Structures are given as structure tokens and as C-alpha cells.
Amino acid sequence: MKINDFKLERYFAKHEFTAKYLFSSSDCDGYELKYLLENASKDEMDLWEGIKLGYTESEGNPLLREAILQYYKIKTIENVVVASPGELNFISLNLLLNSEDHVITISPSYQSLSEVVKSINCELSYWKPNPENWKFNIADLEKLIRKNTKLIILNFPHNPTGSYLTRGELDEIVSIAKKHDLYLFSDEMYHKLIIDDLAELPPISDIYEKGISLWGTSKTFGLAGLRIGWLVAQDTNFLRKVVAFKDYLSICNSAPSEILSIIALNNIDKFLPQNLIKIRKNVKLFSEFVGKHPIISSFIPPQTGSTSFVKLNIENSVLEFSNQLVEKTGIMTIPSEMYEYPGKYIRVGFGRNNFPEVLEILDNYLKTIKPAHSNT
Ligand SMILES: Cc1ncc(COP(=O)(O)O)c(C=O)c1O
To answer: How many CB atoms neighbour CB 321 within 10 A?
Structure first.
């Protein structure tokens, strides 16, 4: 198997730990271990203090799988497998697909949602939103279906645009999938990060027998360092194969991360509301900022998630823009080249406390740059 570099992760690897300011992160600030433990119950603290640092169960700790189930209608732990999110994505697509299959994936997207499919040599079509409002149109999706289509890959809340679906639209997708007997792999990593006053979508695994839901602690909880994600599906046969594949990768999860994830899942109110307050505040600040800078040609505020895809009106490529920005100001941004998406966009992440400080520095920097179509 040959797989291309994960451009976005390589770009992060280059700058994330040297740049002074991160302006494009999709995760919220990571919570401290101390804070997490302060919120643990007596029983949870007993679990934490009694951890044995040996191998763990490859499906994931049964107590963690129970804790996960409180967020799903499915009620047996056989329907849950725990591993790192990227690993679960990689395994699922490799198990579901063969080279003769056709896949439809959302675009722009987190690169693994297309790159793993490409590495299996499948035919791939992209379901793209309207760039005027980032709305995804269901009729467009249906037009992409072919005789050999096997899978549709979804990601709502959507990284990078913050777009969302209505419940009616999700139900329409499920009907289409049923009609054509397709799998739905739904990357729900930003589940519950709902910025606008919108109804929360159910996990796909609750409403479709061939639906596979992916979620984890990284984004919703601000606990990316735990490296814990999970798949939930009605198809336990598929999940057993995921566990067997995992033997060639991580084999099992880190015991401390599993216990810390139990504490987080049982205490979501100590994590999610704070993240949403921060994201909403930063989106508002950025909305005011945009009007002052003709170089920002379009900002469609995200409805969900923690990021938006912001259009720039610049002469240079966005990669050049981002490289210069990090070099001159220490602010790291992700250019749209990392998303293989045409047009000049940067991803903006709203989940960081120092966002107002970064905006001040960006304000001064952008004043020094002339927009592409400017008479001045
Ligand atoms: C849509 C999406 N899926 C999966 C992941 C992977 O999550 P993690 O970084 O926790 O492995 C990310 C991370 O940015 C993401 O944005």
C-alpha cells in the first residue's frame, strides 16, 4: 500500500511547536490533568489511582465503552470499539473498501477522509458545498452515486467550514443510502460543538444499520492529548474486524487515557460549555475584525465545530501568505493547499483563549498587505 503524505499534519508538524501563536487549530485549548481529576468522583479517583500500566483490552476498557454508550441509543458495549480517531478512520476504510469500489467523500475535508480511499485505489467523487454559504446540497450528493458506489463519507459538524445539516437532510441521506445499499461513515469528531441555535443531529449509528459513527475526546472535550476515539455501529461483525485489524497497529489503548476519558465523558458539563463559550466569543470578535480588512473577501461564520474557511483576496498563493505570516509574526495558519481545495482560503480556529491577542497582531500585519484587486 502506498499513501501520500498527510499534508495538513506535516504542516502542523513543521510549525505547531515552534510558532508562537496557533490561529488554525481545530481543537480547543487542552485542559490540564489537574482540572480533569478535580472533577472526578470518588469512584473515578479510585479507578485512576488503581491503574495498572500493563496492556489493556483491545476493544477498549468495558467501563469506558459503558461511559460512551450514555451518548447513544445503542446499549451494548459490543457496539463500541475504542482506539485513536485517525486509526479508526484508517482501519474502517481499509475494511470496507476494495479497489473496484466507488466512494463519495465530503470536500473540503480532513485529508484522511479522502487520502485513505485513494490509497486503496478506489474511484472517488467529492461532494462539495456552495461556497457562497457552505451549504451541502442533497440533490448534488445523489447525482454522484454510481453503480459501484459502496460508501459515503460524512463529516458534520464540518471541518473546516463549520457547516451542518438539518435533521431532515440527514434523514434524506439515510434514505438515499438505504435505497442504494451504501455504508455511511460519519466522522462526528466535532459532535455537540453547536455554535448557532440548531438542533443536534443524532449519531448515524443510532439511525442507520449500515452507519458507522466516529467520535472522540479531542475536539468536543478539549482533550486531544488522550488520543482516544471510538466507533459505534449496529454492525458488530464489522466492529470485530476493526479490533482484529487493530492488532497490527496500536493493539490496545493507554490505560491512563482510558480512565481519564471515562472521567471526561461522565462530566461533559465541565468541558463542553466552556469550549462553546470561547468559540462563540471568538467568532463574534472575528466577525467584527473581518469588516476592517479588505484582504478578507469572505467569512461565513461557522454554525458548528471550531473552525471556518476564510477566503482571502491576495496576489500570492495562500501557502506563501501563511509561510510569510508565521515567519514575520509567529502566527501559524493552515492554507487551503493543505485541503486540496481550489481558491484562496485559510482555516481559522476559534477554540483558543489567546485568540484576541493573536487578532491584534494579525490586525497590524494585514494592514501592511495590499489586497489583490485594489485601486489604492
Ligand atoms: C474531521 C476530523 N476527523 C478526525 C480527526 C482526527 O482526530 P485526532 O486528531 O484526535 O486523531 C480530526 C482532527 O483534526 C478531524 O478534524
So the answer is: 19
